[in-house]
Design a protein that fits this description.
The complex is a heterodimer of chains A (about 220) and B (about 290). Helix content of chain A is about 40%, strand content about 10%. Chain A is built from eight helices and five strands, in the order E-E-H-E-E-E-H-H-H-H-H-H-H. In chain A, a hairpin with a 2-residue loop joins strand 1 and strand 2 (about 15-20). The longest helix of chain A is centred in the C-terminal third of the chain and has 23 residues, at about 140-165. Chain B is α+β, with helices and mostly antiparallel strands. Chain B has three domains: about 5-50, Uridine Diphospho-n-acetylenolpyruvylglucosamine Reductase, domain 2; about 55-170, Uridine Diphospho-n-acetylenolpyruvylglucosamine Reductase, domain 3 (2-Layer Sandwich); about 180-285, Enolase-like, domain 1. In chain B, about 35% of the residues lie in helices and about 25% in strands. The longest helix of chain B is centred in the last third of the chain and has 22 residues, at about 265-285. The radius of gyration of chain B is 19 Å and the shape is globular. Classes of the chains: A alpha+beta (about 220), B alpha+beta (about 290). Chains A and B meet through strand 4 and helix 4 of A and helix 2 and helix 6 of B.
């Protein structure tokens, strides 16, 4: 079968691929080394393979790689690093919402998609948003708690940003280098991987908190 | 688990897509892929060529005219859930979408795919049946509009010919007082296939008399069906508990569950009774939209 040329931007890093038409996005991502995207069921039941595809949480096992051509993909690892975890990741760790950890990347992706759209979800809304992610260890209690904690921390950060004088905000953002709003952010480093996600945030909600901002806000806290 | 080999065609226009479907043997459309990917992995479905229709502009969008609502076939379930047009004119369909699979699948699965697959447990089909929806099929030979009830033939079987593409689904805007209700019974709250789906759309006048009743069932028969005898028994009658119970008993007669699933007859009767009562109560309060 003729190969399909497929351009994927994953966690801010550009990949130009030529793939068999039957390669799923899940397989393509794992072959590229994004093994935080887990291969659970491959029938769209478990959500362990969830990624953000142009900002929408999807099961990567249900998407053929060529269908994602030109798309911006964010995996759990693209949200934060070990040194600088995303507040959602931090909340999952702090609450102990992780047991075996297999479902965690997908849970965090669904949480990110939820909180991007609904910063203050009810418990019912959280359960609905995570309905596509199965966890066979925790019984979901701590996971719901972690999402609530992440939501309240992100809210607090947003308020901190709002309280900041404009000039200072600009300067703080500027410190992030490639994180600055409108910055090219095309450098393929783990740091730059954050800009991919932020670029998307920017297009969806101009007032949305950017990952770059977050680092500086943390300093303010 | 790898997928079988297949070729891909990515037409840029509806015309190109229809040409491919008519000329390329074994070509099948793919949009969200949430059914096709599962079937291909399981080896139960092996198209030689898949035709990507997800990006075709003609298949997208939810529009409202003076008289009708038109939904592009490649509209996702999530898009339908968020549509202000559907929230205003077709809450029965929105309720069906909210019980559809899970949040991740709803971001990919499309209404066209759900109807063309014609699974017995389709969630959108019973809601659209109560709206008297029509589907539009296109091919190089032209367009045809078919009532959804006629489109759905049997389990996983529709009247769509292999060279035809489902382009859109449309329905007349229900009256401002018409009230819809939908209930899915599954083994879990979310992420499950329906054991029984019931959709109702009820309209009445100020005296409490039923002026229109539509009742549809899914997963209780090989394919989603209208319970027409039950509907006929209600129209023109006062919406009393007795009339509703009689209609619910008739609705169960429209179901044809598989051997071993006779319990579904009782479920259908109970759910139809409850939903009709809910809708009748809402009507006495002025009704809501569909």
């Amino acid at each position: 079968m003729p190969k399909k040329k497929t351009a994927l931007r994953v966690n801010g890093r550009q990949h130009e691929l030529a793939l068999d038409p039957n390669v799923s996005l899940l397989q393509a991502l794992r072959d590229l080394g994004y093994t935080d995207v887990k291969n659970g069921c491959e029938i769209g039941e478990c959500g362990a393979c969830a990624v953000l595809l142009n900002g929408t949480a999807v099961n990567s096992c249900m998407v053929l790689a060529w269908q994602a051509n030109g798309a911006e993909i964010v995996t759990n690892a693209g949200l934060g690093t070990l040194d600088k975890p995303h507040p959602i990741q931090e909340a999952f760790a702090d609450v102990g919402a992780v047991q075996c950890g297999y479902c965690t990347p997908g849970m965090i992706i669904s949480t990110k998609a939820l909180l991007d759209r609904n910063p203050n979800p009810s418990e019912a809304e959280i359960r609905e948003a995570l309905s596509g992610n199965l966890c066979r260890c925790t019984g979901y209690g701590q996971i719901i708690e972690a999402v609530q904690l992440a939501a309240s921390r992100l809210q607090a950060e947003r308020l901190a940003v709002a309280a900041m004088p404009t000039a200072s905000l600009t300067r703080e953002c500027g410190d992030g280098g490639s994180h600055s709003p409108g910055g090219s952010g095309a450098v393929a480093t783990p740091q730059a991987s954050l800009t991919g996600e932020r670029g998307h945030d920017g297009s969806r909600s101009p007032s949305g908190l950017s990952t770059g901002d977050r680092g500086s806000e943390r300093g303010q806290r | 688990m790898s997928l079988p080999q297949f070729e891909v065609q990515q037409p840029q226009t509806l015309g190109e897509a229809l040409k491919i479907l008519s000329e390329v043997k074994g070509a099948e459309p793919i949009a969200g892929g949430t059914n096709l990917m599962v079937d291909m992995r399981a080896g139960t479905h092996q198209p030689r060529v898949v035709v990507d229709v997800a990006a075709l502009r003609d298949l997208h969008g939810i529009e409202v005219t003076d008289t009708e609502v038109i939904i592009g076939a490649a509209t996702t379930i999530a898009e339908m859930l968020e549509s202000p047009i559907l929230a205003k004119h077709a809450t029965v369909l929105v309720k069906a979408c909210s019980s559809f699979a899970n949040a991740l699948i709803r971001n990919r699965a499309t209404v066209g795919g759900n109807l063309v697959t014609a699974a017995p447990c389709s969630d959108t089909a019973p809601a659209l049946l109560t709206l008297d929806a029509e589907v539009k099929l296109a091919s190089v030979r032209g367009m045809r509009r078919v009532p959804l009830e006629k489109f759905l033939v049997n389990a996983f079987s529709t009247i769509r010919r292999s060279d035809e593409l489902l382009v859109s689904v449309r329905f007349r805007i229900p009256s401002a007082t018409a009230t819809g209700a939908f209930r899915k019974m599954g083994l879990r709250k979310v992420s499950c296939m329906a054991k029984v789906d019931v959709a109702v759309l009820l309209d009445g006048d100020t005296t409490g008399r039923c002026t229109s009743a539509r009742i549809a069932l899914a997963a209780a028969s090989p394919v989603a069906v209208r319970a027409r005898a039950a509907e006929a028994a209600l129209v023109g009658k006062a919406l009393t508990p007795e009339a509703i119970a009689a209609a619910a008993a008739l609705a169960a007669k429209a179901a044809a569950p598989r051997a071993g699933s006779e319990y579904k007859l009782r479920v259908v009767e109970a759910l139809v009774r409850r939903l009709l009562a809910e809708a009748a109560l809402a009507l006495t309060r002025g009704g809501s939209n569909a």
